[in-house]
Write a structure and sequence with these properties.
Elements (H helix, E strand, L loop, with lengths): L5 E4 L5 E9 L2 E9 L3 H22 L7 H6 L10 H16 L18 H15 L4 E6 L3 E5 L9 E4 L5 E4 L2 E8 L8 E2 L4 E2 L4 E7 L2 H15 L2
Helix pairs in contact: 1-4, 4-5
Length: 227
């Protein structure tokens, strides 16, 4: 069992554990609802933490030792990449085609997966929850990428969450993804068709069944909203 900061509440039928840690330059908040003991639920958090760390090792372009950084710096060829990173890059290339070039992880001249990996990670968390018998969970990665599985209680069919605009959503087995600028001064998303950063405070949220698809959809919707 790995110890993470957490709060544990024992219920009549199912127990609730809330835990958090830092990953992907964000705080990751996790709430699990299951008929598991505290130690077992912390083990699930540990599995999630480990899986996210694996994904970061592959695709964090800001880490010079990551596989993606070595690929960007031509220290590895595409054929030498791990099957997982090859698959991620191929999927991103497919989305570039499907969105007529609006979703382009190579728009800065080198590949940057920052606008994709959180959603991808949420999709990778789902099998961990399923295999451990966790029927209800809420995973929040930096308030921009959220996975909701099942319901917090029988009284509600889903989880009520709020995006950075203060808009409320009821999610059940869905992801909420938000892209954009949270202030007038922030600009970090480039419109691939103009080569310019999208400016101005504006946030766009989408609800999807897949976290990775949500990252693509919210990015594209944000860029289109500026045109």
């Amino acid at each position: 069992m790995r110890l993470f900061p957490h709060i544990f509440n024992r219920g009549k039928a199912e127990n609730i554990l809330y835990s958090w840690f830092s990953a992907m330059h964000s705080r990751v908040d996790i709430m699990l609802v299951a008929s598991l003991e505290e130690e077992e639920m912390l083990d699930v958090v540990g599995e999630i933490h480990s899986r996210i760390a694996e994904i970061e090792t592959l695709g964090n372009c800001f880490n010079i030792d990551s596989e993606l950084s070595r690929f960007n710096n031509k220290l590895l060829t595409f054929e030498e990449l791990s099957p997982e990173l090859q698959r991620i890059l191929s999927v991103c290339e497919e989305w570039k085609t499907k969105t007529d070039g609006l979703f382009d992880v190579s728009v800065e001249g080198k590949i940057n997966l920052s606008g994709f990996l959180k959603g991808y990670a949420l999709d990778e968390i789902r099998p961990i929850l399923d295999s451990n018998g966790v029927g209800a969970a809420l995973v929040n990665m930096g308030n921009s990428s959220v996975l909701a599985v099942g319901s917090l209680s029988a009284e509600k069919e889903g989880w009520e969450v709020e995006n950075l605009n203060g808009e409320k959503f009821l999610l059940c087995n869905q992801c909420l993804t938000t892209s954009g600028n949270d202030s007038e001064s922030r600009k970090h998303i480039i419109n691939p068709l103009t080569g310019q950063y999208v400016e101005g405070r504006r946030l766009v949220s989408v609800v999807t069944s897949s976290g990775a698809e949500g990252e693509v959809a919210s990015t594209v919707a944000f860029i289109r909203s500026s045109c």
